[in-house]
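Appendix C: a fully annotated inverse folding record. The material below is reproduced so that readers can follow the format used throughout the book. The structure is listed first as C-alpha cells, followed by the designed sequence.
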C-alpha cells in the first residue's frame, strides 16, 4: 500500500503527478500532522479535499475501500459482484437489498457500472469549478440532447427549442403559442421576486407553494401532455406535488443551458459520471499537496485540551498504525462513519425501518440451474443471489411499510445491460438519452416519476452493440419502487424492440386503410399504423446481459451509528444537512437561503449522502457547507489563478478496454479519463508515490503519448472553454 504527497511540487499545479503503472515511486509513510483529515473519497469529499489543498491546507485523504469513489464508485463486473456480496452480508453501508443477475460470463474489464449516474447541465454550478480548477482536463465530456417522456404507451421526444415546437405537428397553433409564452416566462420569472408587495406582483407568487400543475393550467392554458413534459422531463421533477416555485427553478435550469455549447442542454463524462469526477478532483488535490492512501480507515479519535492559542487538536489513529495530529477538522463520509460504528460496536444495527424493509424485500434463494439466473455468479463466488420481486406488494404489506418508512428517504435503482445499441433513442452523433415515466403512466400506477438514463457504447461504459439502462425511483416504500422500476423496464424493452424492428407485418388491412400519394407510393393510415404498433409482438426477445437492483439511503446515517461513534470518541458529530438547491445561489424553492448553523462546535463532520437528483446540482452547496465550517468563509473556494496557463497540457483519454484489476496500491478498474496512461496502466491514475522532477514527468508523458489511444471522432466532443453565455431566445411572439 503506498501513499503520495505532492508537497515537493510547486503550488498551483506546475507538476503533473507521477503516472501509475509507468513510474513506481518508493513507498513513504503518511505525514504525522495535517490540518484536515478526510475519510471516504466520495464526490463531496474529493471536491472538498481539492478546494482545501489549493487553499493551502495540509490534507490527508484516506478511504477504507481498495478503490476511489465511495458512494460514487464505478465498478467492473468482478468488483460489482464483490460489492453486492458485501452489501448483503454487512451493516456498514448506506446501500441495502442488492440483487444481481448475470446469465452468462462477461468480460469484466469492458464494463463500467456507475453506482450514482449523473448528467451535467451546461449552466450547472459544477462546471465553472471544473474549469477553474483544471479538473476538466482529466475528463472528456459529450453532449446529451435527447429527453423522452413516456405517456399513452409511447415515447415522445421533448420539444426543447423554438424549432422543435414549430415543427411539432401534434401541437395546435394555440398550444404552440401558449407553450412559447410559458418558456419565455420561465427564463425571466425570478427577475421580479422582490416586487411581491408592489402592484406588479409576479403571477406565480400566489401559486408559489401550490402544485405547479394548477399554475401552468390556469395561467398559460397548457394541456396535460405539455405540462407533464415540462415538469417531469424538462424539470426532471419526481413528485407530482412539486411546488410552483420549485418546478420553475428546475425548468429554467434546462432552458438556460440550451445553446451554451451547442443545441443541447446537458453533458455527460465518458467511462462513468461522478466516479470520474472523484478521480479527477483527487488528482487535482494531489497536485496541490494532498496525501492519499486507500485501504485505510480511522480507528480512534482523541481530542486534546486547548492549546496556548486557544485551539485544540486531535490525535487520530488509522488502521495501518499511523497516528496523525489533526489540527483543524476530521471529515467522515456516511459509509466511513457506518464502517467505523460497526468496528467500535459490533452490536450496532440499522434502524427498525431498514430491518423491516430488508426482511420484507430480500429473500435470498439459490437460483435453479434451469432458470440460468445467477449461474455464473454461483460458479464464481458460490454465493446466494436474491431474486427480484415480480408481483406488487399486498395492500396490508404496503400499509405497514408505509408507516414504517415515514420520514425515511431512500432511492431505489435498477441497472440493466442489454444486447441492443439503443441508437433509436439517441440524437445524431450522440450516445445517451433521458427517458422519464411521469406519475400514473405505468401499469403499477407509480406515485413518483421513474427516471432512466440510457448510455450507449459510445459512452465507454459497455462494448459496442450494447447499452446500459440506469432506472431510479424515489418512492420511499422500497417494494413499491421496485415494482414501478420493473414495469418501466418492460416498457423500455417493448419500445426498443418495436423501434429497432425493420420489417413490420400488418394484418387485416382494408382498402380504406391505404391511400396513394401523388408520386404513387401507398401510405397506411395513421390510425391503422398506431393500432398495429400498439399490438406489435416482437419476433425476438431482448437479451439481458446483467441486471442489478439496490436501494440507497438519502438521509444521514442511522442514529444508532452516530451515537456509537459519539460515545466511543466522546465528541459530538456535526451532520451536514442535505442540500436542496438548484444552482449556487437558489434552493429548490427559488428563494435565497442562508444555511443554518448546526450550533455545534464539533471538529468532526459527517458528509451528506448522495442526492437523488440525477444532475450534479446540489453537490457544490453540500461541499460549501463543510468548506465554510473549516475555513470560516467560502470567499476563496477554488479561487485559483494559475501563473502559466500551459502548465498542465491537455490530456488524451486511454483505452479502457485494456485497463482493470488491482495494483499494489489497491487501485481498481476505472482509470482516470484524460490520463496519458495506456495499456500499461493498472489503476485509476491517482498518485501513489513521491513527485519526480518536471523533466522526468514530461519525458514519461511524452512516451505515454506516443502510444496513447485517442478518440478519432471529435464530432460530438465538447470544448469546455468555449462558454459564450448564450441564452435561448424564444422571441416575443410566434409568427403563425
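Designed amino acids, in order:
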Amino acid at each position: 500500500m503506498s501513499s503520495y504527497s505532492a508537497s515537493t511540487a510547486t503550488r498551483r499545479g506546475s507538476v503533473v503527478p507521477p503516472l501509475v503503472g509507468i513510474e513506481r515511486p518508493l513507498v513513504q509513510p503518511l505525514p504525522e500532522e495535517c490540518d484536515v483529515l478526510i475519510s471516504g473519497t466520495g464526490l463531496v469529499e474529493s471536491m472538498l479535499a481539492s478546494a482545501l489543498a489549493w487553499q493551502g491546507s495540509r490534507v490527508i485523504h484516506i478511504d477504507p475501500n481498495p478503490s476511489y469513489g465511495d458512494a460514487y464508485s464505478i465498478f467492473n463486473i468482478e468488483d460489482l459482484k464483490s460489492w453486492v456480496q458485501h452489501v448483503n452480508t454487512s451493516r456498514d453501508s448506506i446501500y441495502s437489498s442488492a440483487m444481481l443477475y448475470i446469465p452468462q460470463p462477461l468480460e469484466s474489464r469492458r464494463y463500467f457500472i456507475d453506482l450514482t449516474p449523473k448528467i451535467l447541465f451546461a449552466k450547472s454550478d459544477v462546471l465553472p469549478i471544473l474549469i477553474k480548477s483544471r479538473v476538466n482536463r482529466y475528463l472528456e465530456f459529450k453532449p446529451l440532447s435527447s429527453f423522452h417522456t413516456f405517456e399513452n404507451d409511447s415515447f415522445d421526444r421533448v420539444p426543447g427549442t423554438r424549432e422543435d415546437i414549430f415543427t411539432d405537428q401534434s401541437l395546435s397553433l394555440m398550444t404552440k403559442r401558449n407553450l412559447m409564452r410559458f418558456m419565455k416566462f420561465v427564463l425571466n420569472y425570478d427577475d421580479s421576486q422582490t416586487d411581491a408587495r408592489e402592484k406588479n406582483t409576479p403571477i406565480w407568487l400566489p401559486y408559489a407553494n401550490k402544485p405547479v400543475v394548477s399554475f401552468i393550467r390556469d395561467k398559460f392554458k397548457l394541456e396535460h401532455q405539455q405540462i407533464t413534459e415540462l415538469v417531469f422531463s424538462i424539470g426532471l421533477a419526481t413528485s407530482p406535488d412539486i411546488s410552483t416555485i420549485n418546478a420553475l427553478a428546475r425548468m429554467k435550469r434546462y432552458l438556460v443551458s440550451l445553446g451554451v455549447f451547442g443545441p443541447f442542454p446537458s453533458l455527460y463524462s465518458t467511462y462513468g459520471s461522478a466516479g470520474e469526477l472523484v478521480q479527477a478532483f483527487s488528482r487535482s488535490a494531489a497536485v496541490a499537496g494532498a496525501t492519499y492512501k486507500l485501504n485505510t480507515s480511522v480507528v480512534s479519535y482523541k481530542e486534546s485540551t486547548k492549546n496556548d492559542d486557544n485551539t485544540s487538536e486531535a490525535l487520530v489513529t488509522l488502521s495501518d498504525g499511523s497516528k496523525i495530529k489533526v489540527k483543524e477538522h476530521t471529515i467522515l463520509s456516511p459509509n466511513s462513519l457506518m464502517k467505523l460504528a460497526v468496528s467500535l460496536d459490533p452490536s450496532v444495527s440499522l434502524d427498525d425501518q431498514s430491518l423491516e424493509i430488508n426482511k420484507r424485500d430480500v429473500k435470498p434463494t439459490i437460483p435453479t440451474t434451469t432458470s440460468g439466473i445467477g449461474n455464473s455468479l454461483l460458479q464464481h463466488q458460490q454465493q446466494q443471489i436474491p431474486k427480484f420481486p415480480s408481483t406488487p406488494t399486498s395492500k396490508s404489506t404496503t400499509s405497514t411499510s408505509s408507516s414504517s418508512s415515514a420520514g425515511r428517504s431512500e432511492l431505489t435503482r435498477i441497472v440493466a445491460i442489454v444486447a441492443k445499441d439503443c441508437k433509436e433513442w439517441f440524437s445524431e452523433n450522440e450516445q445517451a438519452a433521458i427517458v422519464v415515466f411521469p406519475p400514473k403512466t405505468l401499469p403499477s400506477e407509480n406515485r413518483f416519476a421513474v427516471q432512466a438514463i440510457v448510455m450507449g457504447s459510445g459512452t465507454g461504459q459497455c462494448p459496442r452493440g450494447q447499452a446500459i439502462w440506469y432506472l431510479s425511483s424515489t418512492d420511499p416504500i422500497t417494494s413499491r419502487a421496485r415494482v414501478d422500476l420493473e414495469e418501466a423496464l418492460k416498457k423500455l424493452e417493448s419500445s426498443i424492440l418495436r423501434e429497432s424492428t425493420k420489417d413490420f407485418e400488418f394484418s387485416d388491412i382494408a382498402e380504406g386503410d391505404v391511400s396513394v400519394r401523388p408520386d404513387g407510393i401507398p401510405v397506411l393510415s395513421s390510425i391503422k399504423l398506431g393500432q398495429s404498433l400498439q399490438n406489435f409482438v416482437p419476433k425476438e426477445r431482448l437479451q439481458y446481459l446483467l441486471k442489478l437492483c439496490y436501494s440507497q439511503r438519502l438521509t444521514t446515517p442511522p442514529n444508532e451509528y452516530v451515537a456509537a461513534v459519539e460515545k466511543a470518541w466522546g465528541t459530538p458529530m456535526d451532520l451536514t444537512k442535505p442540500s436542496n438547491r438548484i444552482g449556487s445561489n437558489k434552493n429548490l424553492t427559488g428563494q435565497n437561503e442562508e444555511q443554518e448553523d448546526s450550533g455545534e462546535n464539533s471538529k468532526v463532520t459527517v458528509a451528506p449522502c448522495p442526492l437523488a437528483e440525477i444532475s450534479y446540482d446540489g453537490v457544490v452547496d453540500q461541499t460549501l457547507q463543510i468548506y465554510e465550517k473549516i475555513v470560516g468563509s467560502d470567499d476563496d473556494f477554488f479561487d485559483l489563478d494559475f501563473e502559466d496557463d500551459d502548465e498542465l497540457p491537455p490530456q488524451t483519454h486511454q483505452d479502457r478496454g485494456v485497463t482493470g484489476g488491482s495494483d499494489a496500491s489497491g487501485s481498481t478498474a476505472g482509470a482516470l479519463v484524460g490520463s496519458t496512461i495506456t495499456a500499461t496502466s493498472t489503476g485509476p491514475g491517482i498518485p501513489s508515490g513521491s513527485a519526480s522532477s518536471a523533466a522526468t514527468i514530461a519525458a514519461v508523458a511524452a512516451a505515454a503519448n506516443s502510444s496513447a489511444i485517442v478518440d478519432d471522432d471529435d464530432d460530438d466532443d465538447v470544448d469546455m472553454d468555449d462558454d459564450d453565455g448564450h441564452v435561448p431566445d424564444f422571441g416575443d411572439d410566434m409568427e403563425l
